[in-house]
Design a protein that fits this description.
This protein is of the alpha/beta class. It folds into two domains: about 160 residues, Aspartate Aminotransferase, domain 1 (Alpha-Beta Complex); about 220 residues, Type I PLP-dependent aspartate aminotransferase-like (Major domain) (Aspartate Aminotransferase, domain 2), CATH 3.40.640. The chain is about 40% helix and about 15% strand. Strands 2-10-9-8-7-3-4 form a seven-stranded mixed sheet, with helices on both faces. The protein has a four-stranded antiparallel sheet with strand order 11-12-15-14. Helix 12 packs across helix 13. Bound molecules: pyridoxal-5'-phosphate (PLP). Pyridoxal-5'-phosphate binds next to helix 4. The site of pyridoxal-5'-phosphate has 12 residues, from helix 4.
Amino acid sequence: MSPFDTAPAKTGDTFVRHDPNFLNMVFGTDQVTPLWVADMDFAVANPIQEELLRLANRGQFSYEFNSKGVFAAISNWFKRRHNLSLDPDKFEQVPGVLTAIAMLIRELTELGDSVLMQVPAYHQFGKVISTAGRNIIKSPLRNIDGSYEMDYTDLEEKLSAPDVKAMILCNPHNPVGRVWRRDELEQLVSVANRHSVTIISDEIHSDIIYAGHRFTSMMAVDHENHVSVIGSPAKTFGMHSISNGYVYTGNEVLLERFKKTADSMYLTHGNAFTTFATIAAYENGEAWVDELLTYLEGTLAWIDQFLKEDLPAIRMSPVEGTYQIWLDCSATGLAGDDLKATLGDSGFGATPGTWFDQDATQFIRVNIAAPRADIEKAFRQFKTVLDRIAEDRAKGHVPADQKACSGASTNSCC
Ligand SMILES: Cc1ncc(COP(=O)(O)O)c(C=O)c1O
């Protein structure tokens, strides 16, 4: 029995992932195993919980900052885990990774400029670009037999437009699970450098890397000081609602500008809980992360076998990193609202692919950071409903929720 086999009890909690109002909105029912929001259904590592309890038990919440301690802990972590030397003085702390990207977009581009992102993309990237008054330019990843690659020809063309001043890179990639190799990053950097485009590298998933793959930070690539790296302990340690983000750049000019802006907005320090929980995580949470990775690999192996043996109509893209998996459901014959309705009907609380790419109507993203029993139950229920739909089709029946105006529970056109 693994500690990850049991999720903490949820009495009176208002986690978005489990919130009946959100579930009803997304799936048309709250009777789903929620595998959508990209957080974890696991208890955090003991050293983090103990540190939070220590802070709470003090009963005093005076001003208290320790950014230096945070940066030293992150820097040591990167050295140990990724063999990367990062200078603690070149970090800046911000409330979160999306805040960091939003600020960098404003630093690096002007109103009306364009920012490129590769699709499918983490759905908040589009919002962070457009709400800054910048145009979204999409470069689709190439789906080669289920595995994704960057399209350098498309990148060359789109990054050459004079109004494209920055691009967001997601490494490892949410939702397709790629961990970009050094040669791929180098090729990207050479295209970006040719067109003076700054790469904003979101590396929030950098610690969730599976056997046989290796994370390469943009900071390890010859980047002509163009690039910023952004991360946080949220994904690594399950600290989603109590983490800060950080920015790191080797570009002194950009760093100074960024620090000045962040400081002028008083954004550069977390509170005592985020600060000391972050230090505890990076200093004492390593064994927990190793156990987590082993557990996730076991879950992936189960899913892989289940899909091959019991649900061959669903195809999983190779998962190199992140706890998001990207499933191609094309062979089920379901897409868009029909697929969405089937998720609700089967209690399979995965995220529709259209959240990440309007054309990914036959895809879903599943967050596997949950007890394996929950994952198995959800996949088995999905299979039961898909089998029933296939049987009905074979008999010439079209199920009620597969008719033209499909998915009464989820379709806003009805
Ligand atoms: C790629 C990526 N970036 C950023 C975030 C959100 O980070 P934060 O909560 O620190 O803003 C997520 C969360 O799922 C993510 O997947």
